[in-house]
Amino acid sequence: MSTYTTEQINAAMTAPVEMVTGPRTAKLIAKARIAAPIAAAEAAKERKHRLAAEKREARKQRKLDRIAKKAQKADKANKRKTKVVKPITVLANAAAKAAKTRRKSLTAQKKAHSAFKKELKTTRRNLMTGWKEQARSQKDIERAVALIFKAEEKRKKKEAKAANKLAKEEEAAAKKAAKAAKVATPKRAKLTDAQKLANKAKRAYQTELNRRAKWEREFQAKFNQVEGIMNPFTEKLNEDPELEDGFVC
User: Which of 47, 242, 247, 9 is nearest to 142 (CA)?
Assistant: First the structure.
């Protein structure tokens, strides 16, 4: 877990925002990080070319040294006794001295290059370690913030669940109280067989009356008036409205 406390995280979250007027520090750091390996590669490339050129010169100088030694051996073999310093001997000595100086210079350059490589390796290792620690700390901060938001969301869900449960309990209690306060409806009295038979007869009588009224309406609509001409039977019925019971039945 991160070493940051909740107060530090809240202070970092509520800190005032500073307006950036110049280039961002992250951008400058990124440019420096990108330029460092490129400069190192270019320097290594230049050293490689310089070392190759120095090796070529050393080969040429060794060839001259061999030629000078052969000349010295030839002079000794011929036993030339002269006090005059021969130019070839002076040239050979100067060439040997220059070669020795160049070898020392090459050795020093190799040592310097090895030291530079070690320093570059150490610098890269330190940079990688710093980047990893920074990324790890950033991840820890993000994880802590996520845990805070998650805990807050859980708390809100728990409160909503408790409120919903309380509302359901109150609704159930209100329903129960309303049911208890409701006046019980008295049950209908059970009919006897005689009452059931009387009701059945009444319904049958009413059905027969309805049927007769319907038949009478249809009969009047069919025979009383045909295309505006009055029916004589209707006129006769109108003169004597009293009907016999048998006709009605």
Answer: 9
Distance CA 214, CA 132 (A): 102
- Calculate Rg over the CA atoms of the chain: 62
Contact yes or no for 106/58 (Cβ under 8 A):
yes
Contact 98, 61 (CB under 8 A): yes
Closest CA to 44 of 104, 117, 122, 124: 117
Ramachandran bin of 227, using left for φ above 0, alpha for ψ from -120 to 50, beta for the remaining angles = left
Q: Which residues contact 14 (CB under 8 A, 6 or more apart)?
A: none
Give the residue extent of every domain in the chain: 25-145, 193-248
Q: Which residue is listed with tokens 């029916």?
A: 231
* Distance (Å, whole) CA 124 – CA 244: 131
Average pLDDT of each block of 10 consecutive residues along the chain (249 residues)?
Answer: 74 73 73 84 89 89 86 70 52 77 85 89 89 85 87 90 90 86 75 91 95 92 62 48 47
Residues across the chain: 249
Q: How far apart are CA 11 and CA 8, in angstroms?
A: 5
- Residue 179 CA to residue 182 CA, distance in Å, equals 5
